[in-house]
Structure formats: structure tokens, C-alpha cells
Design goal:
378 residues, 3-stranded antiparallel β-sheet, mainly alpha, globular, two-stranded antiparallel sheet, 14 helices
Length: 378
């Protein structure tokens, strides 16, 4: 597994936020905290809805059975690129091809040599970073000119400009964020793409397998949006059962089944066991998300309803987004994205064609049902 982690470093880069620690990590993370506030999420919401509606319309116009994972992957590529880098991406198709090549490197044999999957992934990452550096510069120029923010990167550039101005006033050298911002936007794209693709695939699969759950979501949607009204942040906050279903899906099928952690200081685990500095500890999020919860192998969104809130009651075990300094900063965005998808999907009609492998799980490197073939009807 250490080889896989090393391969991950080669693909994402040594300076990627996933591998930073201490002050370097703290400084970079603090610069993008404004990107996931209520105000920011409200800006992203109509973009998410527009992208999801476009793809749902395409799915419904195709009467043929489809493996939904690949369709969801394309939906997430479109959505994450639109939300994070907005109007600045000139060649989304070419960018997506580079991104897919980079992701496939995670599943390749960890041998870095021209022609190997890992080598191709690293070259794709380098090209992606160059593209994103130019996009960061363009966004920064737009924000300096006083334009209104249209995507996550615009909001981040506004914050970066503020930090530069504060440094100049204090007589300090202004921080240079462009390279880090480009690499971190790539990290955002990676995190939102693969984890969300897995989670949205499970939304389709589990709502197909549990029609009573889907019907409760539909009832809630009809009550709150009787005329299929556009989603708003206020409406989402009232969707208790929809949100509970999303949170239970994340507990029942956490997209990243394990969390590798490099120990920074020796840790006294028990009276006679010390985890030494530099050790690689791999926590099973699949197992953790089942500890403490009543009847953990049962898919039951009611456990996450406001009157139960098992995600808070057992918060030490509800860890689909990790824990500690590297806790996913975009967890509210992820929940919003899943909630928007489920809200809009619930108005569609589809059936899942099950096979002998449908209940099996595959690792790509997040987890998916072995197959999820569905047919949509208008």
C-alpha cells in the first residue's frame, strides 16, 4: 500500500495539499475557508442545478439501458469544472481527457517509466497544472478589475488579493499563491470528482433498491416544490428527509473505504503499543462508520433525521469526510451536491436491471456497486 501512496504523490505532486503538514498546510487551508461558506454555497447552487438538469434530461431522452457510473462521472466532470473554474476553461473536453488519464494512474501498477499508466498520469497532471495556473491568473485579473465572482476560483482570488494587500501594508513580502492555488484546485477537482461520482452512483443504486425511501423523498419534494420550482439554499435547509438520505448513504457506503495517515509524532495507542513516527496507519472508514450505530448494516435514513441525528450522536464514528487537520473542507459542498442531485433525480422514473453481481462492490479507487444498469423513461 505504501507503493500506492507513493504513486499517489507522484500523480498529484509532492506539494499537493493532501500531502502537506504543519504551517504550510495551515496557511494554504486558511486561504480557502471562505470558499465553502453559506454565501459561497449559495453561489454554487444554481450552477449545480443547471448542470444536473442538463444531464438528467439527456438520460431521460435515452431509452437504452445505461451503466450509470460513467454517466455520473461525466455529470460530475461538468459540474465540478463549472463550479470551481467557471467560465475560464476554454477546452473542457480536452481538460476532461487529461483529468481521466490522471485518475487512471491511481489504478495503474506503481511503476514510473515512459509508456506506463503512472507515467502518463504524471504527464497529464503537469499539463493540467499549467492550464490551471493560467486560469488562476485570469481569474485574479478579473477580480482585481472589480468583476463579480462567478465560481469558486473567483472567490479564492478575492481572498488571495486581500492577503497580498495586507502583507504589503505590513511591509512584508506578499505570498505567492498561484502555483499552490492551481495544484489545490486540481485537488478539489479530484476529491469532488471521484468521491462524488461514487456517492451519486450509490444514490441511484440505493434509491432503486429501496423504493420506500425514494417515495418519501418524492413526497417531501412535492410538498416543498409542487411545481418543480428551482432549488434555493433556503429550500434545501427544509429538506430534512432528503438530507437524511444523503447522510445515510455516506455512512452506509462511504466512498473512500479507508484513510491512510502518515504518523507525525509517536502515539501511545495502548499501554503496550506505540505507533512510531513515520508509520503508515490505515483506518477503515467502512468499519468506523458502522461502529456504535444501532443495526449498522441496515440502510435507514430515519437515523439521520433531526429528531435522531445519529451523525452527531455518534460523531466520533461518522467519518465519511475524514477527521483532523485533513478533514475534507468541502464536506458541506459535497452534501449540497448530493442533495441537489437526489432532489432532481426523484422527479425522474427509472428502473435498475439487477444481475448476480449487483450486490458486489468494486474499488476504482473509491467504491461502487459492481454494476448499476438503469433505464430511464419520460
Amino acid at each position: 500500500y505504501q507503493r500506492r501512496v507513493h504513486g499517489g504523490k507522484q500523480v498529484l505532486g509532492e506539494n499537493n495539499i493532501a500531502f502537506l503538514h504543519g504551517e504550510a498546510h495551515k496557511e494554504l487551508r486558511s486561504s480557502f475557508l471562505p470558499l465553502f461558506t453559506t454565501k459561497a454555497l449559495s453561489i454554487y447552487l444554481p450552477i449545480q442545478e443547471q448542470c444536473i438538469r442538463q444531464h438528467l434530461d439527456r438520460w431521460q431522452s435515452d431509452s437504452q439501458p445505461m451503466e450509470i457510473r460513467l454517466r455520473v462521472r461525466d455529470l460530475n466532470l461538468h459540474t465540478s469544472q463549472s463550479v470551481f473554474i467557471g467560465p475560464y476553461l476554454k477546452d473542457p473536453i480536452g481538460f476532461s481527457q487529461l483529468y481521466i488519464c490522471m485518475v487512471e494512474g491511481f489504478l495503474s501498477f506503481p511503476l514510473y517509466f515512459p509508456g506506463t499508466g503512472l507515467y502518463k498520469a504524471v504527464q497529464a497532471r503537469k499539463k493540467i497544472v499549467v492550464i490551471l495556473e493560467d486560469i488562476v491568473k485570469e481569474s485574479k485579473g478579473s477580480m482585481k478589475a472589480g468583476a463579480e465572482p462567478k465560481c469558486l476560483l473567483d472567490l479564492w482570488c478575492q481572498k488571495a488579493i486581500e492577503l497580498e494587500q495586507e502583507a504589503e501594508i505590513a511591509g512584508k513580502k506578499p505570498p505567492s499563491f498561484i502555483k499552490h492555488m492551481a495544484e489545490t484546485v486540481m485537488d478539489f477537482l479530484f476529491a469532488s470528482q471521484d468521491a462524488s461520482t461514487a456517492s451519486l452512483t450509490w444514490v441511484v443504486a440505493l434509491c432503486s433498491d429501496y423504493p420506500s425511501v425514494l417515495e418519501k423523498v418524492r413526497i417531501e419534494q412535492r410538498e416543498l416544490r409542487p411545481n418543480n420550482e428551482p432549488l434555493t439554499y433556503e429550500l434545501l435547509s427544509k429538506m430534512h428527509y432528503t438530507t437524511a438520505t444523503v447522510k445515510e448513504i455516506l455512512r452506509y457506503r462511504p466512498p473512500a473505504p479507508m484513510m491512510p495517515t502518515l504518523v507525525q509524532t509517536a502515539n501511545q495507542l495502548t499501554s503496550d503499543v506505540v505507533v512510531p513516527k513515520g508509520a503508515m496507519v490505515i483506518a477503515s472508514l467502512w468499519g468506523v462508520c458502522r461502529q456504535g450505530f444501532p443495526d449498522p448494516e441496515t440502510f435507514n435514513p430515519n437515523r439521520m433525521m433531526p429528531e435522531n441525528r445519529e451523525d452527531l450522536k455518534y460523531r466520533e464514528n461518522y467519518l465519511p469526510f475524514g477527521v483532523g487537520p485533513h478533514h475534507c473542507v468541502g464536506y458541506n459542498y459535497a452534501i449540497q451536491h448530493m442533495s441537489v442531485f437526489l432532489s432532481l433525480l426523484s422527479s425522474c422514473k427509472w428502473e435498475r436491471t439487477r444481475s448476480k453481481s449487483s450486490d458486489e462492490i468494486t474499488y476504482l479507487p473509491t467504491i461502487y456497486p459492481k454494476d448499476c444498469v438503469v433505464s430511464f423513461t419520460k
